[in-house]
Amino acid sequence: MSNDDTNIDEHGQKRDRRGEWRPERPVGFMPLFDWPTTPKIVAKWFFGVPGFLVPWYGVYLLITVIAYLFFTPEMARMQVLSAGWALEILLRNVVMVGLFTGALHLWLYRLRGQGRKRKYNANWMATNDKRFLFRDQVYDNVFWSMVGVLVWSLFEVGLWWGYANNALPFSGLAANPVWFVLWMLLMPFWRNFHFYWIHRLIHWPPLYRTVHYLHHKNVNVGPWSGMAMHPVEHVIYFSCMLIHLIVPSHPLHMMFNGVTTALGPAVSHSGFDELVFGDAAAIRKEKLMHYLHHRYHTVNFGESAVPLDKWFGSFHDGTPEADARFRAARTRP
């Protein structure tokens, strides 16, 4: 990229002629599947700060435990399907998404607390744009996100009813402590695996034109864009929770699966590489991988924990060399 193609923004960041900024480090995958690797490297990645669990999966787990202990109806009530306890779960999930996603949106887009520092796209969310409901990208995204919360809650209600009636395979902490902890640690990998394949599915042209197009109206993404999907896509997306129909699980596993699936998109679609507070404090997010998917549509269908994109040839690491390969592939007859 020549100097004529770049400019320096108010934060000293180099942006190209389209106003796009990218971090100097390319997108990488977690070291679990690297070869050769060592247990020390994997352990540092998994348990380090920042790492795989800290901060984001740790935050999701903490939210899950609080919701499970204090904001979930008693199991005895859930033996019979009723609107009362189902609406309690729906309200709890609306509040969770509203507070979590709303807090990210408030800091990054309403208050613009860090300006455009570490923001991939220089533009803010669209207004007066007929592509979106209410001609406003944020209002559109909030509406479709709440449709997603309804779908998530329906999955959760059905699974809770199954647990309450001993109709699902159960594995508790007291009887199977090793499996309880291991399945909790494996949950993000299951989600990564599931997301890659359902994402490839909804890019199948008939499904893309009728369903997934709605999500991809968001090229310049924000926290509320993550769950802004067609209802059919929500059903496919939250189908990751159906794993608990066959794998012995505790309801806490099921809730962690759902919470991570519902809250994670706000982080991966925030549009920023880091959350920055003042001059020194920052929380790394490194979600360039999924931003590039919205930028180019045909790359990076998965996430960084499981390198499926690398294995199946759909990986873009954000470097100029990858841009050149992408352009060459698109122009190849």
TrEMBL record:
GO biological process terms on file: lipid biosynthetic process
Cellular component aspect of the GO annotation: membrane
Source superkingdom: Bacteria
Protein name: Sterol desaturase/sphingolipid hydroxylase (Fatty acid hydroxylase superfamily)
Ranges of compositional bias, category Basic and acidic residues: 8-22
Organism encoding this protein: Litoreibacter halocynthiae
Domain Fatty acid hydroxylase: 185-314
Region listing for Disordered, in residue ranges: 1-22
Tagged with keyword Transmembrane: yes
Database matches in PANTHER family: STEROL DESATURASE (PTHR11863)
Keyword vocabulary terms for this entry: Membrane, Transmembrane, Transmembrane helix
Compartment(s) of residence: Membrane
A GO molecular-function annotation: iron ion binding
Bilayer-crossing regions: 45-70, 90-109, 141-161, 167-190
